[in-house]
Every structure is written in C-alpha cells, then in structure tokens.
Design goal:
homodimer; alpha/beta; Rossmann fold; 8-stranded mixed sheet; two-stranded antiparallel ribbon
Chain lengths: ~220, ~220
C-alpha cells in the first residue's frame, strides 16, 4: 500500500520504518523536499522509502499518518493540501502539547474540542482516525515491549476507515486489544489522557508505559 | 477514627457506609442539618453513623471526604468552614463535571488547573489528597468488583497525609495497587482522565471499569 508520513520526528521515522518493513511504499513529507532528516531516514529505511514535501507525501499516500507536532499539525496539513488528502484515511497520531508554559506541557486545545476534531473540521472530505497518540513511538509499532495485555484506543467518524486502521494496528503492528471509543469527539478523551501519561512517564521513569482497560 | 463525609449522593453514602462497617465514627454533612437523605443514610448505616450540616461533619472528622458534586465543592467547603478543615486531611473524591453543556459532560476546570488545586489554594492549611475520583462509587470501596490488578491514583502535597490515605485505601478498602503521581498538580491528570472514563462507561455499558497501569 502507498503510505504518506507527515513529520520527520521520532514518531514519523518509527512508523515509517515499520511500514517499509511490512512491505509498504512509504513517502515521508517535511516542510521542504530534501530535508536532511527525511533523506537520512529514507536512506536507512531502504527500498520502499522515499521523501518529499508535505504535499508529495500526501499525494503519494492512500493512507496518511499525521506525525507532526500537534501545535504545527494544521499548518502542515494545509501545506499537504486539501486535494491531496481528499477521500483518504488520515491517521492522526499527534497530541496538541503546548511546551511554551513550561513542563509538564499543557494542551493547546482540550475539554470541549480536540485537535483530531479540528483537523476533521478543516478537512471535511478526509477520513480522520485518531489512534496511537497515547503511547510512545517504539510501542506504537511493537506493543510486545510491554508484556501482557494493554489497550490501544481508536475513534473516528468513518467506520470503514476505522476498520482499515484496526487491521493495520492488529495485523501490521501486533496490537491485541484495540478499543473503539466511537466517533471523533472521543479524540478529546484520547488527547486528555496525555497529562496522565506524562505523570506516569515521570513517575515510573520509562516511556514504555500504557494502560489495560479492565472491567467487572 | 472520626470521619466527616461532605455530600449525600451515592459516593458519600457508599463511602460513609463502608467506613462505618470498618468501625469508624462517621458524620455525613449536607447543606442543612437534618436533610432527609442524610437522616435516611444514618438510620440505615446504624451505630457509628450520624449527620449534620457541612460544618458539623467537618468539625467531627479527623479525616474529611469531599463527596460533593465538583461544581458545588468550593461552596460546600466554605460552608464547612476553614477552621473546621484546618490541619486535617481532606480526601477529594470529586470531579469538576459540567453537565450544563449536554452529555457527555465537560470539565469546569482543567488543563492548567484542577479542582483539587483550587481547593488546596482556598484552604492552604488543609492537607488535600486527590484520589478515588477515577472509579465509580461501588468500586471505590470494593475494588474486587473487577477481578485482577487495577490501579488507583493518588496525589497531594503532604507525604504523611498521602501515607494515611494509602493505608485506608489498601487496608480498609482493599486496593492492591495505589500509584502516587506526586504533588497535587497531578490532580489535573486525574481529573482529565474523566472524559476517557465516560467514553469507556458508554462503550462498555458498565460503570465497573478501570485501568491497570502496565510497563515494559
């Protein structure tokens, strides 16, 4: 499958490399084509990996991952272009973390709105799926880094787009438990979990931390 | 031990009854002494249970539980009185849920502040401990309603107050895993978990739901 990755940070590189290894044709996009980070990634990831501007990656992908920093995501997606995103699945992995007010970061949008919903509103003909934002990059593509069962959340307005994403999470990345929280307004809950994640990370001194949803 | 319970809802009644059964001397407080709900609870809970105004319950307790609705908590605590709360442990179980904008509720304070911190700021000589707000009332006092391990979070600025509370949670209520998230600013994370809890409740159709924190 042709996949576009927006963002050249750890999340974009980790997802991109895993997807290349799964046999997909992956193009990483950054602000300008030919960025050092994207070129270095494409060289290391090898055959099936390429790079370009945001718009190149979006045009290339049948599925597109938003791996940009949350506060820059809407700008990056505008640069990617409405037409290049139209009708496609956009898997939004980002978190609207605002580091400008010190550590731990706060959220630039929360409570009655979410970044996932803002993206959906800005690109109404794109099928936005929110997932993977609640774990560290390495865990996204290798949930076995934590032994036993633990939970990945997913939300979105398009059932088929969620089905495709769940399949990729389970069969591609190895997630055993993917919990569908409903429509994209659940992105509020997924993003508002981040402050707890940050506390767990600080307390337990490891980024390999997640939760397993349990019930009576 | 003498314990004050502020609030006559399901949370207050459930905690109050459990504490009476554990042998504590529990006084439930409401806006006015002699409320029907508090009197009915005291009668049912039996010996060791009494009721009065918020100030009566606060004056009575060595430990006080805030079980009022989050948006009414600061008013209830003001009615309880600064002097009656001074130097005491206040276990804040409440959530700042705002139901005025429809379902699911939003939070009336979040992100860069929390209800727990607002209470601490309003009553600087009271030892505020935030805990139990992430599970339904029945589960607070009987975590075995969910089989296996699951996690209760706690935060607060006073180490000794947290120790006393952890002991009550473990030895009194049966919690096996209580995770100290640090100082009371972690109440933001605990309260911002509520939107996720509400989604899980809606999705799984049971209030007996919690998370188990797991790590690599």
């Amino acid at each position: 499958m042709r996949i576009g990755i927006l963002g050249t940070g750890v999340v974009g590189k980790t997802l991109g490399t895993k997807l290349v290894r799964l046999g997909h044709d992956v193009r990483m996009g950054s602000r300008k084509a030919g960025s050092d980070k994207a070129k270095a990634w494409a060289k290391e990831a090898g055959s099936g990996a390429s790079e370009g501007a945001f718009a190149d990656a979006a045009a290339h992908g049948e599925i597109i991952f938003n791996c940009t920093a949350g506060m820059a995501s809407l700008d990056a997606l505008r640069a990617a272009g409405t037409r290049n995103l139209q009708g496609k699945i956009l898997i939004d992995v980002s978190n609207p973390l605002d580091f400008s007010k010190g550590m731990p970061p706060s959220l630039s949008v929360s409570n009655t709105d979410s970044l996932g919903e803002q993206i959906q509103k800005s690109f109404p003909e794109t099928k936005v799926v929110k997932t993977l934002n609640t774990v560290t990059a390495a865990l996204m593509v290798d949930p076995s880094l934590i032994p036993g069962m633990h939970t990945m959340f997913i939300s979105g307005n398009d059932a088929q787009a969620k089905d495709t994403t769940v399949k990729l999470l389970k069969e591609g990345f190895g997630w055993k438990e993917v919990l569908d929280l409903g429509d994209l307004s659940a992105a509020r809950a997924q993003e508002m979990y981040l402050p707890l994640w940050l506390r767990l990370y600080m307390k337990l001194q490891t980024a390999n931390v997640n939760v397993h949803v349990v019930r009576g």
